[in-house]
Amino acid sequence: MATQLPHPASSQAFTISANGRFCFGGDWNPEQWDESTWEGDIIKLEHAGINEATINVFAWALIQPSEERYDFSMLDRIVALLDKHDFGFIMATSTGALPAWIPAKYPDTTRTDFEGRHHAFGMRHNACPNSPNFQRLSTALAGKLSERYGNDDHLVAWHISNEYGGECYCERCATAFRTWLKHKYGSLDALNRAWNTNFWSHTYTDFEQILPPNTLTDGIDNRRATLSGCNIDYKRFQSDSLLANYTGERDAIREHDAKHPITTNLMDIFEGLDYFKWGEQMDVISWDDYPFINTTPSDNGFKHDLMRGVGGGKPFMLMESTPSQTNWHAYNVLKEPGKMRLQSYQAIAHGADTVQYFQLKQSAGGFEKYHGAVITHGGREDERVFREVSALGAELNAHGHDFLGGLIDAPVAMMFDWDSYWSLENVSLLPESFTYRNQVLRWYAPFHRRNLAVDVVPESISAERLNQYKVLVAPALIMVKPGVAELIEQYVQAGGVFLTTIMSGMHDENDNVILGGYPGAFRNVCGMRVEELDMYPENKKVQAVFDSGTSDVSVTGGVIKLDDGARPLATYTGDVFYRGTPAATVNDYGSGAAYFAGAVMDKAGTDMIVDNVARRAGLHAIASPDSVEVITRSYPERHQKLTFILNHSGAAVTYPNAPFDGDRSLLDGTTLSKNLTLDPYGVIIAVHDTDR
Ligand code: GLA
Ligand code: ZN
């Protein structure tokens, strides 16, 4: 049942490696190919330095052709071949796509969509999480796989299902939702109060009247519903339901294999699942990174940091990335020479302990036949992509071991919260450009520009952990659950520096407005009050004037009153009646300070605010050229730090006064000087021996 929270993940600390080597590999789908090609492909991959294959991701139809019959003969031969070539393998459970016989036999296993249509067989990621037949069949399969392969000495990890996501609105989900709600609220009265159901005469007189919010019921679109409390509860419930699928398979695996780490591949800022809750149940985080044409290095850095944060700061796996191009973006551009290597090192720099591709061999048929791969349709080892993969493979086989296990000592914490994500998306007021994702990325960027490392943390962070950070940033953290405002107040009281923004602190855990003025829960610590929210069109000319400059403003939080002690940091000028009033404020609180950014500002504005914050908190920014990112992983047990210096530009760049002179360059063994030159998409890794 979805309400039961499963056992937490093993507390064991897992190191991911392919038999001691840095895990370099990816998805391999030999079942799509004639068996006579398998070994030749493995030999090619060996030439590229590949040492791992993720197998059995979508093969349920082959390994269980009917309910009564499992057939592992093909998988046995694949595993035997990988063993023979000393490849590590990650065994997926294949439950990310139903085989045709399952929905034919058990129609309840497929989903009912937002439009209320019950689906027949097709696609993938298609099972109803609350279907008892799916639960039974998927956990049985996971158990069988574990029993059979759990002792193989080349097994690296388990990979359950694939990219969990999507909602179901079927009858079984509706019933399970009501059970979940009864458990959460106890009584219908409490639920009616929490959801503010007297709005539009929604008051329920029986739990049976409650329906999942889709287009036939209360859903406005798949982000918003009439009662946002209900909408958010449904999202929480669906996230828990899929998580119960995950933990069901995990526990089935654990019955036969106590030692290998178990994961599933996550998708960064994915809206559908509360990944912090998931992280608690996963042995190691793995995720799939497919930067879009407009994904900046900062945005991608955030995604890595979010995934590391979901795993509690531990290293993670880059389970998928493309060696060259995707086939599902609007523009599927090639990665220019060097870019794949650079992006792989960016992942490692942010905490990845693997580099893995989707996929090792390009399909000849199916929807993904034009997706990039290590072995392409051309099949030659002298192709550009194959050569670049091979060059990276050589480096990772030489140095990759040194990367494993390194932690990142971040002075800055950024609070990210899926409830706030859902709550903000459900607000009917904001311009389209104002999304949770955009706000979070916008406020991450100035820290990234200063090479100030950021840990992404949940609202449930302990005071002890929070107090280790000099700065806490909470962009658009609209929903504040009980205890969180107090946690932040004690943090600032004790000297912490808090930065929050427009649309923060405004809702309680039921998504109702905290009365008395915005930012509700943070009014006390911020020492100010937003009296009105103004959402004018983007063509209006409004600016925020700071001591040190001016910033264009696209959305203002409206009228701020300083009646609780805050001082203005910037004031509005331009085409609004409240010109001259504060656009950003700062409040001294205990030994710390709370900053409030009242408007969505351009780069200059966020930079000026973050400069103030950094000065106040005594942060040490590292200056670097615009395209160069600097980030450090620490290895206290060997008294060493590795600093990754990454040139995200396709042009060479000089980096004068780089603070690494005297350090050894890991990749070429030279000693670094004060003035560095980085190749196009170049990478330098500085080895710094810390004092013993
Ligand atoms: C996802 C999936 C893979 C594949 C890739 C293609 O990450 O997990 O199965 O579809 O996308 O980019
Ligand atoms: Zn369902």
What does this structure look like?
The longest helix has 27 residues, at 228-254. β6 (265-266), α9 (275-279) and β7 (286-288) form a beta-alpha-beta unit. The strands form 5 sheets. Strands 10, 11, 12, 13, 14, 15, 16, 17, 18, 19 and 20 form an 11-stranded mixed beta sheet that branches. A 6-stranded parallel beta sheet has the order 5-4-3-2-1-9. Helix content is 29%, strand content 19%. It is of the alpha/beta class and 692 residues long. It is built from 18 helices and 26 strands. Bound molecules: alpha-D-galactopyranose and zinc ion (ZN). Zinc ion (ZN) is lined by residues 111, 128, 130, 168, 170, 172-173. Alpha-D-galactopyranose (GLA) binds next to loops.
Structure summary, number of beta strands: 26
Please tell me how large the radius of gyration is: 26 Å
DSSP helix count? 18
Helix amount, in percent? 25-40%
Gap from first CA to last CA: 53 Å
| Share of β-strand residues | 15-25%
pLDDT below 50 for ≥5 consecutive residues: which ranges? 1-8
Bound molecules: alpha-D-galactopyranose, zinc ion
The helix-and-strand class reads: alpha/beta
Oligomer description: single chain
Main sheet summary: 11 strands, mixed
Calculate the mean pLDDT score and round it.
96
Inertia-based shape? globular
